[in-house]
Structure formats: C-alpha cells, structure tokens
Amino acid sequence: MRAVLTWRDKAEHCINDIAFKPDGTQLILAAGSRLLVYDTSDGTLLQPLKGHKDTVHNDAIQCVSYNPITHQLASCSSSDFGLWSPEQKSVSKHKSSSKIICCSWTNDGQYLALGMFNGIISIRNKNGEEKVKIERPGGSLSPIWSICWNPSREERNDILAVADWGQKVSFYQLSGKQIGKDRALNFDPCCISYFTKGEYILLGGSDKQVSLFTKDGVRLGTVGEQNSWVWTCQAKPDSNYVVVGCQDGTISFYQLIFSTVHGLYKDRYAYRDSMTDVIVQHLITEQKVRIKCKELVKKIAIYRNRLAIQLPEKILIYELYSEDSSDMHYRVKEKIIKKFECNLLVVCANHIILCQEKRLQCLSFSGVKEREWQMESLIRYIKVIGGPPGREGLLVGLKNGQILKIFVDNLFAIVLLKQATAVRCLDMSASRKKLAVVDENDTCLVYDIDTKELLFQEPNANSVAWNTQCEDMLCFSGGGYLNIKASTFPVHRQKLQGFVVGYNGSKIFCLHVFSISAVEVPQ
Fold first, then answer.
1. What per-residue confidence (pLDDT) applies to 519?
2. Taking the C-alpha atoms of 284, 287, 292 and 297 in order, what is their torsion angle to the nearest 10 degrees?
3. Fewer beta carbons within 10 angstroms: which end of the chain, N or C?
C-alpha cells in the first residue's frame, strides 16, 4: 500500500472535524468557528460558512452524530447530551457523569455509544437510556477520545472500535463484550474511523500521521506524515481516498493504492487477500485454501510444493502435506525470524532468493546467506525455471536489457543475451532453446538462445508465456487482446482484459485486477 497526495490546503484554525457528502463529491470541515466546503476532486474551496450564534447547551459542544435511520441528531457536551428529532420541538436532554468526548450511532440507528473523559463508554438506546456500560482500564487516565461502529453489513454483530488516551485501540460487541485483546499504540489517538465497507480503519493523533489498520487492528502502513497532531481523518465514501485534518489547519487529501501481491507456479496461484491473508487457488480444480497470517503480507512466492510468505519481521516457508497434485493442505516447514527489505522474493526447494535493487541473495531456510550475485543494472524480473532441488536455475532480466541464467549452487551468472531495451517480462520455452521477452516499449521479442538470433517480434504486449507442453506455442497479452503464436503461423487474436501469467496445454491463465481465470484455447 502506498499513499499519493492528491491535494492540500491550509485553513487559519485547527481542523476539528470533517464530514463527506454521501456521494463523496464534497467535504465539509469545521475549522475554528467556520465551516469550509471543498470540492473533493481538486481541493477547490467552494464556500466558507459561519457557525450559528445561539447557544443550545450550557457548555461547549464536544461532538455530534446523526442517526442514519431515525434522523435524530445527538449533540454532546461536558455535562449532558441532547437528542434532536424532526417530530419534536423540544430537545430531549440527558445528564452525563463525565465529559463526553465522542459519540457514534449503530448502523440500524437503535443505539448510541458515548465515549467519556473518565474512561467509560456508555451505550444508550434511542430514548437516551443506558443499556451497557464499558469501563476501560485506567479510568480517567484513559479518556475515550474517539469511537466508531463498523459500518459493514456483513458482520454478524455490531462492532465498536475504541481509541483511548491510555494509548490503546480496542473492539467491543454491542453487549459490552471485548473482542480480542487491546492493541497497544505509542501515541495518543485523536481520531478513528472506518472505510465505507468496514474493511480498514484509519487512526491518527499525536504521532503526526495517519495509519491504516485492518478491521481487527493490525497496522498496515502510513497514509501520510504531517507537521502537527492529526485531529480528524475520514475515508471518502466507496473509494480509496482519505482526507486528513490537522492542528495547524492543514487539510490533506490522499489516494491509497493497493498493489497486487501474488505468485504463480503452473496451476497454483497464491495471492494476498485482506492484506493479512494468503489464498492459494488451484486453477484446474478451482479449490482454494486460506492461510491467516494476522500480519501484513509483504511478498509471496510459490514453487512446486513450497510457499514462502514474507511478513514484516519474518519469512514463513510452507510445504504441502503430500505429493498429490491436487493436495491443498499446507503446513509450516521453516520460519526465518528476520526483517528483510527486498523488491522481489523467490522460493526454491531448499532456498529463498531475495532481490534487492541490483543484488540477489540466496539464503537457506534457516536464514543463512549461502551466495550473492551483483548485477550491472536494476533487476526487473526473476523466475525459477526448474532443476534438481538445491541446484535450480533462475532467469533474470535487467533494466539495461541484459538477460542472465543463474544456478542456485553456482556463484557465476551466465549471460544469455543483451538487448537494447529494458526487460519487463521473461519466459523460456519448454526445451529451453527459445526466450520470449517483453520490453519497456510493449514489444514481445523472441530469440534463439544458442544463436542469439531475433526470430520475430510483435507489438502491444504487456506479458508473455510459453506453452509448457508445446515447444513452439506462446501467448502474449496487451491492448485488450490475447495473442497466440504457433511456430511461424500468423498470430491468432481474441479479446481479453488483463495479463497472461501462464500457458499449459489448452489453458491460458490470465490475471485481471485481483482475480485469475483460465481461458480455453484451441491447440
């Protein structure tokens, strides 16, 4: 996940709160005594509004929350909270035992959660009567600074996320039962909010940044670093855009980009799901198995009966229980408890290969570095092309156009050929006599490995794969088409969105967005 700043503006006063228009086209923010309305597409300030002059509460209003169903408005102060209703002229007022800092209605509008300065969460029905009381450890030393109900319609229970100044995040059911353990923070949280479908949480505060968490409280990364405390953060409805409001009046609007983390070997495809899980899919039987890692999955590699998963502080090596080609039961074989920074990850029978810019490192499953190769240029592509266990061959493509073959047990790399353009994708034919390359100009080039002769080239390619069962057949994708080339015959073309990732017999495997599918083609 990476965050791209779309636009930024600066108000005169602290940004206390932000709300999106339901369709996401505009956002309104509270800065000092003014309300500012922005166009979310480009950050244009549409209009400044002044706050109303008449007082409603005896004390300063701390927070408001609109009931999504009954159209009641809850407004909370230091000593009480009021329930406003369109049908009633008078405001229903209820006393509070402590200063109310935050509030949030459940999805069905039946219950209102109040977060208070004394570390208590009071859950009230829509008439204002207390039904559940949750006392956080630390009491008044852990003021409840921000709360939010998960908006997901798929959750069986209402789930309340709680951020307190005991520097903890916790989750509760409507009954008051805690879900899981507290998640420790190293800062005072000022705002917590969910994405529209409840899959992610945004959290910001005294650490001067907004962090992205899973719905279970696993930290995934930083959305944006700021120069002052973050007082409010919200996700734009049904999108991957996030707005952040700070103590110094800065408003920042970010786009979150979630990359595909995956690996493929023949008919097994492994991919990241929900940022912390790995799903292995058998492309022939359509069976799937989910591996819950409970941490951010950074890289995935799969080869034969091995599966490697890189987490922030370790690499897990899994193996299949049996040699059965349809077996989908994986078990942990080894754990390498070490933090690695790498661009690409490859797994072999007894080793993992880490790619770091121009350098390749070969490590045993116990984490011992056995070999290292230094390349002339940045490594753009790497693939295992088979071989005996412990002696596998790797195909490596570089930014300077060089293509090499490396054996895991040999310190010396073999240069196969060098072309003028950077390598984007590579594959070798079944007999290892031909090489297909997609370059940075979207051209597919096919070479004879022995003579280095360019056999043919085709335009509009983004990925390429040789047929694992037929020496002279390959396919490449690009420009909304799937192209199949058999020997010297003209290219057969059919419409297809996505990337070709494998070609086995009469099946071509294609990746589109986050899913992979098998396309039947004539042989």
1. 87
2. 20
3. C
